[in-house]
Specification:
Helix 2 links the parallel strand 4 and strand 5. Helix content is 29%, strand content 23%. Helix 3 packs across helix 4. It has a single domain, classed as Rossmann fold (3-Layer(aba) Sandwich). The chain is of the alpha/beta class. Strands 1-2-3-5-4-6-7-8-9-10 form a 10-stranded mixed sheet, with helices on both faces.
Length: 337
């Protein structure tokens, strides 16, 4: 009995030591600071992706990594951002892999960097597996200051676009990804705000890359109208953080009609404004979908829309500007243009 108790105590001590060691290793990874001024998207560190407890994260037919890279704050100061990178195990096509930049929503129960969380893939399935099966690489920013030292710039479109574009440039600089120059962006809720800003700024931040489409689910966009704006730290400049219109990148927005977090009325306002200014915009109204269900309901359709944007055969055409497709959450649906 004494021997058994001693063995159990030793095992418990070893496990606790290993857990502490894993946590320390992960902390050191994220604490990486660049030396000197570096270009946006400079890849600083990369290692296999694990959960917070150190368990490997597996994705079908893909390799998964955590990364740290150089980004910029809204005022141009150098920052670091962490993120995740998923690379298919299949061979890259001629011309390189298409890249998808994923911008995540604020995560509950508290806003935590996905790459440092107990469940890094939260909210990324089934569309992540679909993208891996198509041979696309996916890079997912954590946003500066969320996983790395510093403070996250909450609802700051310029900083968010820097983080998203920086993640793409970091993936580009990893030779094992075999990335091409064509990419798309995909975001949800808070991340929708990030990718809509990315559509407006990508050509300035990465002129050598070709952003061919942006998809956003329930994007936080018409901030003035959103309940809860009053009293927030960003309220005095809230109008400045409404994503600006642009006419060079086609945009798909999927919006649930039963969304109580980002009401459909706010997306309707954005649509009216952007349509009047010539944005190549498609909005899908998802009847009965809530803020929580809209991505699950629409993910396959979003992947198909992005695939059409990435198609290289024949001339690339924009979707019908401001076309609207109604969708029921219970029945067969039509595809976006």
């Amino acid at each position: 009995m004494t021997f058994s108790l001693t063995l159990a105590a030793c095992s418990s001590t070893i496990a606790a030591h290993q857990s502490t060691s894993t946590a320390q290793q992960i902390e050191r990874f994220y604490a990486t600071e660049p030396t000197g001024a570096l270009a946006l998207g400079t890849l600083l560190r990369e290692e296999p992706l694990t959960t917070k407890s150190g368990s490997p994260v597996t994705v079908s037919d893909a390799r998964a990594y955590r990364i740290v890279y150089v980004s910029r704050s809204a005022d141009g100061h150098q920052t670091t951002s962490s993120g995740m990178l998923f690379v298919p195990t299949s061979g890259a096509p001629r011309g390189g892999r298409p890249l998808v930049a994923w911008a995540h929503p604020a995560r509950s129960p508290r806003n935590v960097a996905p790459s440092r969380s107990p469940d890094p893939l939260q909210g990324m399935q089934p569309w992540l597996d679909e993208m891996m099966s198509r041979g696309w690489a996916v890079v997912a920013t954590d946003y500066s200051g969320l996983g790395t030292p510093g403070r996250q710039s909450w609802l700051d479109g310029t900083a968010e676009a820097n983080d998203v574009v920086g993640s793409v440039l970091a993936a580009q600089r990893d030779s094992s990804v075999e990335a091409g120059t064509t990419w798309v962006a995909w975001g949800y809720s808070y991340g929708g705000h990030a990718v809509l800003w990315t559509a407006a700024r990508a050509s300035q931040l990465a002129p050598g890359l070709d952003l061919v489409g942006v998809a956003a689910a329930a994007p936080v966009a018409e901030l003035v109208q959103l309940e809860g704006a009053a009293g927030q730290a960003w309220e005095p400049s809230v109008e400045k953080q409404i994503p600006p219109p642009q006419t060079n990148v086609p945009v798909l927005i999927v919006q649930g009609t039963n969304d109580s977090v980002v009401p459909a009325s706010t997306t309707a306002m954005l649509r009216k404004s952007w349509c009047a200014q010539g944005v190549p915009l498609t909005v899908e109204w998802i009847r009965g979908a809530t803020h929580e269900s809209v991505v699950k309901v629409t993910s396959s359709n979003v992947v198909a829309w992005l695939a059409r944007r990435l198609a290289s055969n024949g001339p690339r055409t924009f979707p019908n500007t401001c076309s609207v497709h109604d969708r029921s959450t219970n029945g067969k649906v039509s595809s976006a243009q």
